[in-house]
Specification:
Low-confidence stretches: none
Mean pLDDT: 95
Number of helices: 14
Structural class: alpha/beta
Radius of gyration: 21 Å
Number of strands: 13
Bound molecules: pyridoxal-5'-phosphate
Strand content: 5-15%
Strand order of the largest sheet: 2-8-7-6-5-3-4
Length: 369
């Protein structure tokens, strides 16, 4: 039996060996980082070193790094912690942004997946009061990278704040919070080979969102609860590895492009989402109306190949993607889209297995139609 092929890195990346070792080492250590004795100080050192390493991942030395339980909590903290502001979000944001601010005004996307900056400008010009805008650095479904720097310029012109969900971009493309002039930024460890259940909200040093969790002075009173020391130790190692391997990451575009070239050659009607915009090197999202996403995912799974249907949903149920619909896809088109996402351990043989399995499924579906 062939080894299974994992092509769902945007859902979660396999944990790096060095990360697993760092987590195991931290688990073996005793000590609460809030304790003043030597054991506590040792735990504190691990956390403070991790803070600096995570800040380096996104060019944010000097900013405040608040460790959280992941990207979802970081997004909630950013959007719910700065109450009293008018909130504007892009239509392609992750549900953890959209549902944290259900009243937010939406910036539409173009058919290429890019946020419509002219529409953002109009929204900014037409409203009053302090504003918070949330635009992701890269989309989890299509990989499309957003013009965050330009958006920051527009937002700052009216004295607003820009939050950026960088969960998918960090460690995959060079990104500097300082250069992009982002005010708040969300991260998650498990998208870059770190452990699940740990992330961070990185803040401009003068910002103080209201904590979501109270009842302890941890994280400078910004997030109560004993820190997830093993998770944070693993996050730091994953962040350091990702920083070091950014150039290698860009090479994944060769594998991704090979998948798209081969599928398009066989099936010219295939729509590849976001291929006209700058995209993460690792992500391909495509669909063909009539071929249901769930059926494709199941057929591929039977062949030992793991991919996602459009938006992977925590309940296991798949809804047609709001991102693809915001890009102009019909419900039927969105319901046919699958996402292939590569990562640090992906190889040419994985591409071969995926392409062959997908084409077999396509031919079988055509024969049955
Ligand atoms: N934001 C984006 C863009 C994501 O892709 C995800 C996870 O899929 C999240 C936020 C949530 O991160 P976490 O799983 O760490 O809560």
């Amino acid at each position: 039996m062939n080894q299974p092929v994992y092509l769902d890195y945007n859902a979660t990346a396999p944990v790096r060996r060095q990360v697993a070792e760092a987590v195991a080492e931290a688990l073996r250590k005793t000590g609460n980082a809030s304790s003043v004795h030597a054991f506590g100080r040792q735990a504190r050192r691990v956390i403070e070193e991790a803070r600096a390493t995570v800040a380096d991942l996104i060019g944010a030395r000097g900013g405040t790094v608040v460790f959280t339980s992941g990207g979802t909590e970081a997004n909630n903290m950013a959007l719910r912690g700065l109450a009293g502001r008018r909130i504007i979000v892009s239509a392609g944001e992750h549900d953890s942004v959209l549902q944290a601010a259900p009243e937010a005004e939406r910036i539409p996307l173009g058919t290429d997946g890019w946020v419509d900056l002219a529409a953002l400008e109009r929204l900014l010009d037409n409203g009053a009061g302090p504003v918070l805008v949330s635009i992701m650095a890269a989309n989890n479904e299509t990989g499309v990278c957003q013009p965050v720097e330009e958006a920051a310029r527009l937002v700052h012109r009216v004295g607003g704040l820009l939050h950026c969900d960088a969960v998918q971009a960090a460690g995959k493309v060079a990104f500097s919070m300082r250069d992009a002039e982002v005010d708040l930024l969300s991260l998650s460890a498990h998208k870059i080979g770190g452990p699940q259940g740990v992330g961070a909200l990185v803040l401009r040093a003068d910002l103080e969102p209201t904590p979501l969790l109270v009842g302890g002075g941890q994280e400078g009173f910004r997030r109560a609860g004993t820190e997830n020391l093993p998770g944070i130790a693993g996050f730091a190692v994953a962040a350091a590895l990702a920083c070091r391997e950014l150039d290698r990451y860009a090479e994944l575009a060769r594998l991704r492009d090979e998948i798209e070239r081969r599928l398009k050659t066989e099936v010219p009607a295939l729509r590849i989402y976001g291929d006209e915009a700058p995209r993460l090197a690792n992500t391909s999202c495509f669909g063909l109306p009539g071929l249901k996403a769930e059926t494709q995912v199941m057929a591929l799974d039977l062949e030992g190949v793991a991919v996602s249907a459009g938006a992977a949903c925590s309940s296991g149920k798949v809804r047609p993607s709001h991102v693809l619909q915001a890009m102009g896809a019909s419900e039927a088109e969105a319901a046919s889209a699958i996402r292939v996402s590569l990562g640090w351990d992906s190889r040419e043989a994985d591409v071969e297995r995926f392409v062959e399995a997908w084409l077999r499924h396509y031919q079988r579906s055509r024969a049955a139609a």
